[in-house]
Amino acid sequence: MGQKEQAANALLDFDLLSRLIVGIGEVSEITGVPQRKIRYWEEKGIIQPVKEVEGTTRRYDYINIKKILLIQELLNDGYTLDAAAKKVEDRMENINKVFLELAKKTKTR
């Protein structure tokens, strides 16, 4: 199996994605978004870390990592932070609606 096929299969592994939780340093390294910027977005309520014990390193799940990537991409395209965050929230909402509909259809079969 090629690397592209493995990556595609990983995206289909919802169990893996639900357990994917990484620290802010790893998120910064993977996404190229500085930790300071990630913290700022968190302060503004754009992203939310996974709730853990007080005083531990900030940790983020798949959904928030995806948001970080999409927002940074839109910022690079010239959007303001507020406009980028709104656009990403709208996209995420549309994606969730589609998957909920698919889940309903799958259950009725």
UniProtKB/TrEMBL annotation:
Q: Which residues form the HTH merR-type domain?
A: 24-90
Task: Return the SUPFAM superfamilies for the record.
Answer: Putative DNA-binding domain (SSF46955)
The record's annotation in PANTHER family points to: BLL5018 PROTEIN, REDOX-CYCLING DRUG-SENSING TRANSCRIPTIONAL ACTIVATOR SOXR
UniProt keyword list: DNA-binding
Has UniProt tagged this entry with the keyword Zinc?
no
A Gene Ontology molecular function term of the record: DNA-binding transcription factor activity
Pfam families assigned to the protein according to its UniProt record, in alphabetical order: MerR_1
The reply to whether DNA-binding figures as a keyword in the UniProt entry is yes
- Protein name as annotated: MerR HTH family regulatory protein
Native species: Desulfotruncus arcticus DSM 17038
